[in-house]
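Ticket #4471: structure output looks truncated?

Reporter: J.K.
Steps to reproduce: submitted the chain below (262 residues) through the standard prediction queue, then opened the result file.
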Amino acid sequence: MRIVLIGAGNLATNLAPALGSNHRVVQVWSRTEASAQALGHRLECPFTTELSQVVTDADIYIISVVDSALSDIARTLTEHISQDAIVAHTAGSMPMSVICHPNAGVFYPMQTFSRDKQVDFWDIPIFVEGHSPWANKVLMELAYDLSQSVYPLSSEDRRYLHVAAVFACNFANHCYDLSSRLLEAHGIPFSVMLPLIEETARKVHTLHPHDAQTGPAVRHDHNVMERHADMLADNPDMQALYRTMSQSIISAFASNDKPTNQ
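Returned output as attached by the reporter:
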């Protein structure tokens, strides 16, 4: 398949080499010339910063841009490309309908991406939606070329997948950041937390997260929780977050009923 990448950020930088020999990126577009040029040179393909100069004869156009720009970019792009092409975005929280094209679709790899760390797409779940049977077929085949975990998923259900991912990834990483600030303020390296973080992540491969939960809130150890909260008095935001998270855990264990999805 001849593919144009619309966007040259974290996701596109990881996706491009994963496409392998079965597919060819024929052009890269980005609003930022430096980003377009860097990825274009890496792939040895042309690049542009003008949507009007995007080639019109590609098979698939994959749009990976910030959500706030997606609608405008998709509208401008679809004004001049072939109606036979497939146009898919990679946003977890945006509906497929943001692309007005007969072969619109969604190609959502659920992973956290950074330009400087290449990930293995084979282990990344990819969620696919197609407006037409043809778009759905081609995007599913593309996904299976890249990953062993491919799922059809509607825009409505993908919204819940995305908010769940925010809890599991973004909020968890923010807690790592808060932990590092506490430690560094007292001369303790964050690296001491890594074995704990890694074991916590390993446990949920074999245990439901509810069953893997430990800590003072599960034990209803209110004396410990109050001491912790008092220690955070100079940081009201962190103190409030500690109390909210602790109460959430207590509430989750208030009933003897186990989660229904175990």
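Triage note (M.O.): checked the attachment and the full token line is present. The mean pLDDT is 94.
Status: closed, working as intended.
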